Amino acid sequence: MTDLSKISSLCKRRGFVYQSSEIYGGLGSVWDYGPLGVELKNNVKNLWWKSVVYQRDDVEGLDAGILMHPDVWKASGHVTNFKDLLVDCKSCKKRFRYDLLKTKSCPECEGEFTGPRPFNLMFKTFIGSLESESSEAFLRPETAQGIFVNFKNVLVSSRKKLPFGIAQIGKAFRNEITTGNFTFRSREFEQMELEYFTRPEESDKCFEYWVNERFNWYKKYGINEKNIKLREHAKNELAHYAKACYDIEFLFPMGWSELEGIAHRTDFDLKQHSKVSGKSLTYFDEVKNEEITPHVIEPSGGVDRAVLAFLLDAYKEEKVRNDKRVVLNFHKYLAPIKAAVLPLLRNRPELVKLAKDIYKDLRGDYKVQYDDTASIGRLYRRQDEIGTLYCITVDVDSLEDKKVTVRDRDTMKQERISVDMLKKYVDEKVK
Ligand SMILES: [Zn+2]
Prior knowledge:
The chain has 431 residues and is an alpha+beta fold. The chain has 13 helices and 23 strands. Zinc ion (ZN) is lined by residues 89, 91-92, 94, 106, 108-109, 111.
């Protein structure tokens, strides 16, 4: 298994992920996605959206605000329950999670601890100009509640019948005390969440369906079967409202850890919001002629964790002749750069023109790079290291036979393709 420092240094060097506010010494546990990182992350989100929303007729999308009415978090239980017990060191003032503590005194300075106190993980902010209690609000700690409070809106406007789902991708914020392992646990992160509403008696089958569906999604897009597994939560691990929960776990360098959770949330969320808001959040079943509160199945994945898992899984060091080749063999839909155009000579204007024309013709629907700043060997190594699918070299012969050499990332096989057919050739391979 690739170690995290190797991936994080590649990520910084090649522009996948940077530490937030680095020139100011960095901001802990917040990460910025660079030019290649944003492509990879967008590709992950697009693939999720396509398989969860576009390729189905029972799921609609939503993009709710990060700020919500403060009562949402009272209803959801976050104000009372979303807490860790913390202790502070009396000498160095460092803060620790009580449940993870292995020592009786501060591991940093051996100082004495304060008693454990609850600490809410939600980020507090203020709406309006007065910092008074009445305008207190929270940055959402999960995207799910935006879906629950819009259940009736989506139901009415989309005229959906049970079972149906509402999907959302968006940022969430948690003031975690224990962070780390690169982008695995950060204070600002992105979620891909689906809330799937079903009749109560169909909910168990539906739960099973989504566990399999989501597990297979990761494998379909390149995660090696050996690095992914399902783990069922023991009864004492379950949230009080949950009937069952599975984690999809990935073998991260620090060990098996959660990539996505699929929870059977029963009718807890809709009932809670109905109770606190005073508005009905039921569904009228026309066939059975009855008013019911649907049960909810929730597949909830972390975008940043998925990006990290796809990166770790794609990273390969290979021996090619006497050389070492580093390659990110991403699934073709995930690769940030689909093709690179590499002219062999920089001092032949007609060759440069042909290469630039090819580059302009290819780009637009996906990201293509143009690079002429090194020898061809180095250019190939650079592109392999970021997972570029096809390297297209334009040479002196290209001017005569109107053909270019296309090199496949994985097989390293080279093929001469006529310039006329190139766009179609690459489109077919990457779309
Ligand atoms: Zn201390």
